[in-house]
Amino acid sequence: MRTFTGQSSGTPQWIVDLEQGDDRGFFGPGSAAWAVHGDMPTIVAGIRALLTQALHPGALAGVHDHSRYREDPFGRLSGTIRWIFTVTYGSRATAVGGTRWVQKIHERVVGTYPGPDGTPVPYSASDPDLLRWVHLAFTDAFIGAHLEWGKRPIPGGPDAYVAEWALAGELMGVEDPPRTYADLQAQLRSYLDAGVLRHDERVDDVVRFLRKPPLEPSLRLSYPVLFRGALASLDPDFRHLLGFSKPRGPVVWGTKMLLAATGAILGREPAAERAAKVRLARLDNAELGG
User: Which is deepest, 18, 108, 271, 273, by most CB within 10 Å?
Assistant: First the structure.
């Protein structure tokens, strides 16, 4: 569980805190966000998002220069999952507070990366273009993985999810994020068509690491299946830019079986969702005068 929550056992305090708050939050049980983020494909989506983000030299520089990904392979991923779940399941005040926590971290993520001709290019994690790219990569990864393997129906379909999660982008400072699935794909494609994305030695380094990270023994057998599933679900052009062809064999089926087995072990309802339901039940009881 450390991969996703940052804690090897037990329920992290930040999840328990989702029970607190005096409002119903930005989303709820009937939302597209709850349907997507509460399902097992989020496991694959996290890997897919990191692969996609690595193609942007500015986003990659932030990971390379400021992330302890070698010492803590999925520390950044678990931090992002914490923010996603906090915004999805927390009260509005909790969601805004969680966003400010991430933005405070972003203030320190600045530096330069080598441009195509070797000239240093400044970057900042708070730069609007990088914020947009990260939002696009994560939105695409989560809806893409869900469309491939998700069990929960999405109320309103993919467009509803993209429109709902645009609010999370706006909380982070993304201006006019996409609100339809087609617009999401078009904005992702614009980075590729403009030549912003690229494959270099740093991409190779991160991909090699993501392909075979130093995981806990319990994850070493299953992780290669998840990694290949993430590759298989990627847009072919992004996958090609990463230096991969489409994985051979029953990858999609194998990932489906692994996610089903994992769901049987962990339970279909994430702890964050259960915590949110405790808060909602308390609020409903108060409205009824209980």
Answer: 18
* Tokens representing residue 65 in the block: 């220069």
Angstrom CA distances, 191 to 13, 32, 49, 56, 260, stand at: 38, 26, 15, 9, 34
pLDDT digits (tens, 9 = 90+) for 213-252: 877 777 788 999 999 999 999 999 999 999 999 999 999 9
Q: Where are the beta strands (DSSP E) in the chain?
A: 110-114, 120-124
CA-closest candidate to residue 146, choices 261, 277, 276, 33: 33
Kindly state the DSSP code that residue 110 receives in the 8-state scheme.
E
pLDDT confidence band for 3 (50 / 70 / 90):
very low
CA distance 142 to 36: 7
Residue 19 DSSP class: G
**How many Cβ atoms sit within 10 Å of the Cβ of residue 38?**
23
Query: 3-state DSSP call for residue 23?
Result: coil
